[in-house]
Structure formats: C-alpha cells, structure tokens
C-alpha cells in the first residue's frame, strides 16, 4: 500500500528523517515563475482543496503557481505546543458576523498559510454517506449534487491512503476499511466507548488522519493532544506535509505571503487572465491560462465579489444571484460529563472515537437528516468557554476549572440545511488593503434546532451511561462549507460538476465552498477528494483540447 | 531532565489549587525552545500599558479581578496580557456586526461600567468594594441591552479575553492540574486515571470534599458577592 502511495505522492518521503520537520532544500530549490510568465494555472489558496489540485496538476506536468496569503510554515520554528500561542495559525483579518445566530470565527474556523485550515483542524477524516449526495430526492430537504457518491469513492480511497487515515472498519454509509489500524484511546475516548457500549450505541475508533506508526519520514503520534494547535511532530496530516512537498518536487511554485485581491477577467472574451495580489503591500499580477480559487468558504465568495467587472457587475459567477449563498455550518453542541475518575482529556489527540449511528434520517422523527458524535477534548482556554457558557464567573468559574481533569467531552456535528439567506456579502468596512471585508449572516431553521436538541440528548445518554454525575453543554458551530455551490444549472449554483464557474470557461473553484450539502461528517477529506477529482477532469479536458470536456 | 526544586513552592493564583506540589514549570527543560520562549514570556509581562489609558486600566483591573475571582495575591497579571494583545491588534479578526471592533469595544464598555458605578455609588468602579462591584457586573450578564450594546456580546468580549489570558498562564495550569506544553515529550499513560510520573493526583489537604459540595460552596460565596439568594442563580 505505502509503496503505491509513494509512487504517486512522495510527500512523506520528501520530509527529512533527522528529527527536523521541514525540507528546506526543497523549498529553496522551488521553481520560480515570473509574474509575466503565462502559467497554465494559478491557484488561490494552499489549503485542503488548493494543495491537492496543485500536487495533481504539477504531477501531470502543468506549470502551476499557487498563492497563499499566509506563511510557508515551518513546524519547528513557527508552531508551539501551547493553546494561546497558536493565534497566528488563524485567519484573523477582519470579518463581520450577523444574522439571528451569528457564527464566531477566528480559532474555530479558517486558517491561513500553506496547509490552510488543516494545519489546525482536529484531524477527523470521515467520508460523506452516499445519501448526502441526493438529500433533496431522498428527504425533500437540502439539495441534490450533480455528482454521486460513486463518482467520488475512488478519490476517497486515494486520499485516505495518502494522508493516511487510521481507524476501525467503518460500518456506516458505504462500509469500508482504513489503511491503518486504529490508535489506542485516551481517557476521553475510553469514556465514549464505555458509555456508548452501555447505552447500546455503536461507536468506532477513528477515522483520523494521524499516522499510526511511521509513514515515510513522518514519525508516530506522541499523543500530546495539541492537534488543534498545529502538529509539531508531523504525525497529523495537513497538505503542508501530505501534498505540497510532492508538488514542489514536480515543479509547482507555492508563493506565500501573497494575498490575492482580484481575479482578472477580460470583459471582451469573458475569460480569466490571471490574478492581482498584494505582496509586502505592493500590488502585483500573475498571468495564467486558467485560475482556480480555493480560499475557504468565506474568502472564496468574497474574492469573486471583489472581482466584479462591467460585464460581471455582481461579481464572478453571480449572474443568477447565487454567489455567497447556501453557506453552511454544522451545529456542534458539545456536552461534557463529570467523572470521579481522572480523565485528563488533554492527553491523546482530541479526535479519537466517533459514532455515525444517528447520521441518517430517522423516519420516526419529526426532523430530517441527522448528526454524528465525536470526542473533542478541549484544552484549558477552550474549556473555560464551556464553563462560562453555563453563566458561571468569578469563584464558581474557578471551582469548575479546578475540576478540569475529571471531565470528558463529546461533540456532535449536526447537518444544518443549506439556506439561501445564509450568505457572504461585502460589508462597508474595509481591511488594511482597503478591500471591503466579508459580512457573514447566519440563521438556523427549525430542522436545525431540532437536530441540536436531539444531538445533545444522545450525548447525554452516552455520558450518563458511562457514569457521569453532572453534565454541561455548550452550543457551538463548526466547519463552514458552501457559499459557491456545485449545481446542475447556473440558476441553482456557482460551479458545474467539473468545478467550473458558470459563465467563465477557465475559472474553477476547488475548495469547500462548492459543497451543496454537508452531511454530518467533517469536510476536509471530501474537499481533498473533490479537488483530486477536479484535477483529473482538468487533465482529461486538456488532453482532449482546450476546455473540450466542459464546453458551454 | 526534570529537576524538582524542593525549596520552591509551586505558585497557584491566590494559593488555590488541588494538585499540591504540582508545578508545570518543573518540566520546562523538556519543552521545545520556541514554546518555552512563548510561555515563559507570560510570567514577566511589561508593567506599562500600551493600549489602555491609566483610567481605563484602573477599571479594567478591577473588572478582571472580579470576573476571575482574583481577590488576593499572588495574582496572574491578566491586564498586561490583554493590553499587549490589544496594542498589537491581535484580535480574533471577526466581530459581531452590532459591536465595534474589539479594541474600541473594550474602551467603550470600561467607560460604561465606570459610568454605572458613578450613577449608583457616586464614585468610579475601581473605588468600589467587590460587594458593590459585583452586582453591577452581574447586571450586564442579566441585561439584554446595555448602554446600547447587546449585553451578551459584551459578556462574550470580557470573558473571552480574560479567560484566554488567565488560562494561558502556568500558574493557572498548576491550579487545575494541566500538564502544559508536551513537545517533544508527549504522553505515555493515556488511560482513565493514568498519570505520567511527574503528574500529581487531584487531592486537596481538606479532602474528602466531594465536587458537588465544593461547587455548592462556590455558588454560595458568589451569590453573597453579587448580593442575591443562591437559589436565584
Ligand atoms: C478548529 C478546526 C477544527 C477542524 N477540524 C476538522 C476535522 O477534524 N476534520 C475535518 O475534516 N475538517 C476539520 N476542520 C475544517 C477543515 O479544516 C476545513 O473545512 C478545510 O481545511 C477547508 O478547506 P478549504 O480548501 O476550503 O480551505 P482552507 O484549507 O482553509 O484553505 C484556504 C487557504 O486559502 C488562503 N487564502 C484565502 N484567501 C486568500 C486570498 N485572497 N489570497 C491568497 N490566499 C488566500 C488561506 O490562507 C488558506 O491557506 C476544522 C477546522 C477548524 C478551524
Ligand atoms: S496528538 Fe499526535 S497528531 Fe495530535 S498534535 Fe500531538 S503528535 Fe500530532
């Protein structure tokens, strides 16, 4: 298995094996294009979607330049084993939030720099279920994708092997196995397994993109629990170590510190011609035959709105007022239980154990779709948020906090439904470059609220069965996706089944913003698999002549 | 190598804690250099304010002490940690569309709190006793709107910054038994009730006091402070 991975993606073998984490030689020797070179494609964003696309196209011999607003991270010198000190990992450019239930961003949302949000994501990598691709037909809610699960399955398998993913045999959705065995569980995971067993709920260890054993030159996880602060060990997968090294080895240029300010479109031909970007405060321009945007569900719609021209006055891909809409978050209530034993949930990776027993629509219930349950293991600062959310402050806050080692925490991911009014628009406020910032409005529908309540009950059931004496729940959100969704026709979305923006033949979106529904699964594996599929399509299209595969 | 300094007693804020003898700083030699620099920097933050004016700092210290029950020394220097952050513009980026950006929001809300104190007691917030301050703070928690701002977003601002500063400090980790930085050392004893050789079990000298009783006691003390019957909480 690893042999074939190495042949198609040598990233893990391009990392040093001397205890340091970054191949500086590879970065220093990186191919460098001139702004005036018309490269084959410029990719905006080196996160989950952008990095996979970059690696695949570089392997296919394309001349690729990938621009990322953030740094080219070195885990040795840039990351710390500390919660507070990890602030620089987050996208902290100004954004406004509103709507009936505004969604706080910052640490809990997008990242910046090469590796994208996966640098500080938890590391769960479940697949979507087949039903996620046709919820409109099956359940009368959400949307049908223009592609099916079967079209994505081979890409799930490829990416699972490249990350690689560790976990028990998976009984839910399309049952499958994982390339690596499950990790041992820490206190939190053990409580979940014990409670689930006692409550008659199925739970499994995994699936996590944390190598169980050495993988190439990536070492084994040391169970230190700082996955959400960036893995200094290189055990947890992020594109910085799973796809970018191989991309560089195949001639891609990854240019960090470059904030793209506009996708350039020639109004005469209606085609993209490159991008403008800001580097050290200076505006520059990269010419390209094609452009792919993969800047995360907020920045991608924002960039397309910022790129309006006379011919596309409402922004690119927005001829039908679809851009920025149907943005989704998952309802992510977290329920913690108090045990007499010491759980010490800060040990071991936060992602340990999951259950997808409640994932699908239950016909006996008044709501549609469902949720999954996972261990979450907040560190002290985040744990304080849990306690504060109960209304505690002062002496009571301190007393609960002193009890930290006795608590175990589960989190649910509820499939909130896509709604047109949940949307990114441009605010009046501008950022330090003078560009209007994104305003993100979010409101929940009734189905969403019912799922939150039901999910909380299911977690309480597990924790009580495990022996919890007291419980507390905090209402949170997680995982923004959508905002430029894939659809069968331009009236219903922004990109087609090949990720091409409707109305602009050489502009593509290859990040989480294209998701029409989100299931109750964490999205990164699906985003990477979609990007791998999009790359295959582009390469196949190029072989049969320019854009032959995707003519209007 | 871990060296336990037998003469130095682990510091916990206000000498409160349940992990007698546990000092996360005993492990410093086993932390990586970058993390060490970052965390140890918090032990000696500057004493001059770069963001807050001295009037604002006065009110802020009183508010933060109250929110975090820092009613005596040794205190974690929460204000300087917040001040540095606001001076550097190190915000979370996002803000509620019905709130100003974080720095402005801090200035405005401190001024409002001082005005509330003036209206109720005829002197500034910092001059009041904790028993006088606490009901004013609780009133913000209980309100819908407060001086034209959504009170729950004000509460979120105050608690987010104060808890982030407080629980980033090694003394707070000593208090709650958290192991702190763990690279490159990692953890070996993952199971329930599993401890590393250097971790200390949860146990206070006056135990057994069950958790429920301790919380009950804290609730009562807190209720006294905010001036209401415990059952109203
Ligand atoms: C705390 C946390 C925990 C998470 N846990 C999980 C998990 O366990 N499992 C999971 O599957 N998912 C998880 N996620 C979500 C997952 O990380 C994201 O869904 C995924 O990385 C999104 O991929 P993307 O390609 O859309 O964007 P990203 O990976 O965010 O990449 C976008 C990149 O674009 C860059 N960029 C943006 N705008 C511009 C611009 N204008 N110019 C240049 N560059 C730009 C950014 O710097 C960034 O690097 C988590 C996220 C967070 C924040
Ligand atoms: S727990 Fe493992 S995967 Fe997570 S950050 Fe630590 S070493 Fe990396």
By secondary-structure content and strand pairing, the structural class of chain A works out as alpha/beta
Shape of chain B: globular
Hetero groups: flavin-adenine dinucleotide, iron/sulfur cluster
Average of per-residue pLDDT values of chain A: 95
Architecture per CATH nomenclature, i.e. the level-2 architecture of chain A: 3-Layer(bba) Sandwich
Major β-sheet annotation of chain A: 6 strands, antiparallel
SSE sequence of chain B, one letter per element: HHHEHHEEHHH
User: Strand order within the widest sheet of chain B?
Assistant: 2-3
- Please name the CATH topology of chain A: FAD/NAD(P)-binding domain
pLDDT < 50 stretches of chain A? 548-552
Topology:
The complex is a heterodimer of chains A (552) and B (233).
Chain A (H helix, E strand, L loop, with lengths): L1 H7 L15 H5 L12 E4 L3 H12 L4 E4 L7 H4 L16 E4 L36 H5 L9 H14 L24 H13 L4 E2 L33 H4 L1 H6 L3 E3 L3 E8 L4 E9 L2 E6 L3 E3 L2 H11 L21 E4 L2 E5 L14 E3 L15 E5 L4 H10 L5 H7 L5 E8 L8 E8 L5 E6 L4 H21 L4 E4 L2 E5 L25 E3 L14 H20 L9
Chain B lengths: L32 H8 L13 H14 L10 H10 L6 E3 L5 H20 L8 H13 L2 E2 L2 E2 H16 L3 H7 L34 H16 L7
Antiparallel strand pairs in B: 2-3
Helix pairs in contact in B: 2-5, 3-6, 4-5
The structure holds flavin-adenine dinucleotide and iron/sulfur cluster.
Keywords:
heterodimer; A: six-stranded antiparallel β-sheet; five-stranded parallel β-sheet; B: 233 residues; mainly alpha; binds flavin-adenine dinucleotide; binds iron/sulfur cluster
Summarize the structure.
The complex is a heterodimer of chains A (552) and B (233). With 552 residues, chain A is α/β, with parallel strands linked by helices. Chain A is 25% helix and 17% strand.
């Amino acid at each position: 298995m690893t042999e074939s991975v190495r042949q198609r993606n040598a990233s893990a073998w391009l990392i040093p094996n001397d205890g340091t984490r970054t191949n500086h030689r590879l970065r220093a020797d990186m191919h460098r294009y001139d702004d005036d070179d018309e490269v084959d494609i410029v990719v905006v964003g080196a996160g989950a979607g952008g990095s996979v696309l970059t690696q695949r196209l570089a392997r296919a011999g394309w001349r690729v330049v990938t621009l990322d607003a953030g740094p080219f991270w070195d885990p040795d010198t840039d990351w710390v084993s500390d919660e507070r000190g990890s602030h620089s990992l987050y996208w902290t450019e100004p954004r406004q939030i509103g709507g009936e239930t505004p969604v706080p961003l910052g640490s809990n949302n997008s990242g910046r720099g090469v590796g994208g949000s996966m640098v500080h994501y938890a590391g769960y990598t479940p697949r979507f279920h087949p039903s996620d691709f046709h919820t409109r037909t099956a359940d009368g809610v959400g949307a049908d994708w223009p592609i099916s699960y079967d079209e994505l399955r081979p890409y799930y398998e490829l990416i699972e092997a490249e990350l690689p993913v560790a976990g028990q045999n998976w009984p839910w959705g399309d049952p499958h196995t994982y390339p690596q065995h499950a990790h041992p569980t820490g206190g939190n995971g053990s409580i979940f397994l014990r409670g689930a067993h006692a409550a008659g709920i199925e739970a499994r260890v995994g699936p996590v993109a944390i190598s169980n054993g050495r993988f190439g030159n990536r070492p084994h996880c040391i169970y230190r629990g700082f996955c959400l602060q960036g893995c200094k060990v290189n055990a947890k997968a992020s594109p910085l170590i799973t796809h970018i090294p191989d991309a560089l080895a195949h001639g891609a240029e990854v240019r960090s510190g470059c904030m793209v300010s506009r996708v350039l479109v020639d109004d005469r031909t209606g085609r993209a011609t490159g991008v403008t970007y800001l580097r050290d405060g200076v505006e520059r321009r990269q010419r390209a035959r094609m452009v792919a945007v993969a800047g995360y569900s907020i920045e991608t719609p924002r960039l397309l709105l910022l790129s309006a021209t006379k011919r596309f006055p409402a922004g690119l891909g927005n001829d039908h007022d679809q851009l920025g809409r149907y943005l989704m978050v998952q309802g992510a209530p977290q329920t913690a239980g108090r045990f007499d034993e010491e759980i010490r949930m800060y040990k071991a990776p936060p992602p340990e154990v999951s259950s997808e027993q409640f994932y699908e629509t239950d016909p006996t219930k008044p709501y549609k779709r469902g949720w999954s349950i996972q261990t979450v293991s907040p560190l002290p600062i985040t744990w304080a948020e849990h306690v504060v959310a109960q209304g505690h402050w002062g002496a009571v806050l301190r007393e609960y906090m002193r009890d930290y080692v006795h608590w175990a925490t589960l989190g649910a991911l509820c499939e909130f439904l896509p709604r047109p009014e949940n949307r990114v628009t441009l605010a009046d406020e501008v950022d330090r470059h003078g560009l209007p910032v994104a305003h993100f409005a979010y409101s929940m529908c009734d189905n969403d609220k019912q799922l939150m309540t039901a999910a909380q009950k299911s977690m309480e059931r597990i924790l009580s069965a495990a022996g919890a004496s007291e419980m507390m729940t905090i209402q949170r959100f997680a995982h923004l996706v959508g905002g430029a969704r894939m659809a069968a026709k331009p009236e219903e979305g922004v990109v087609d089944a090949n990720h091409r923006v409707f109305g602009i033949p050489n502009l593509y979106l290859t990040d989480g913003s294209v998701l029409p529904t989100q299931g109750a699964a964490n999205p990164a594996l699906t985003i990477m698999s979609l990007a791998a599929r999009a790359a295959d399509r582009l390469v196949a299209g190029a072989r049969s002549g320019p854009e032959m595969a995707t003519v209007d | 190598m871990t060296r336990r300094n037998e003469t130095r007693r682990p510091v916990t804020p206000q000498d409160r804690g349940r992990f007698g003898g546990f000092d996360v700083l005993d492990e410093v030699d086993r932390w990586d250099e970058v993390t060490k620099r970052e965390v140890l920097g918090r032990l000696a933050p500057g004493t001059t304010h770069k963001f807050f004016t001295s009037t604002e700092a006065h009110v802020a210290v009183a508010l933060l002490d109250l929110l975090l029950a820092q009613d005596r020394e040794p205190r974690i220097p929460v204000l300087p940690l917040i001040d540095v952050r606001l001076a550097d513009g190190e915000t979370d980026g996002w803000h509620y569309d019905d709130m100003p950006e974080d720095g402005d929001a801090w200035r405005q809300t401190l001024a409002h709190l001082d005005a509330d104190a003036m209206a109720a007691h005829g002197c500034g917030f910092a001059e009041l006793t904790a028993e006088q301050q606490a009901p004013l703070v609780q009133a913000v928690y209980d309100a819908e709107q407060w001086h034209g701002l959504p009170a729950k977003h004000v509460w979120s601002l105050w608690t987010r910054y104060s808890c982030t500063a407080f629980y980033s400090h090694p003394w707070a980790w000593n208090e709650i038994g958290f192991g702190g930085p763990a690279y490159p050392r990692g953890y070996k004893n993952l199971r329930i009730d599993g401890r590393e050789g250097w971790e200390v079990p949860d146990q206070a000298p006056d135990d057994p006091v069950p958790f429920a009783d301790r919380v009950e006691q804290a609730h009562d003390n807190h209720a006294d402070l905010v001036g209401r019957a415990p059952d109203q909480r």
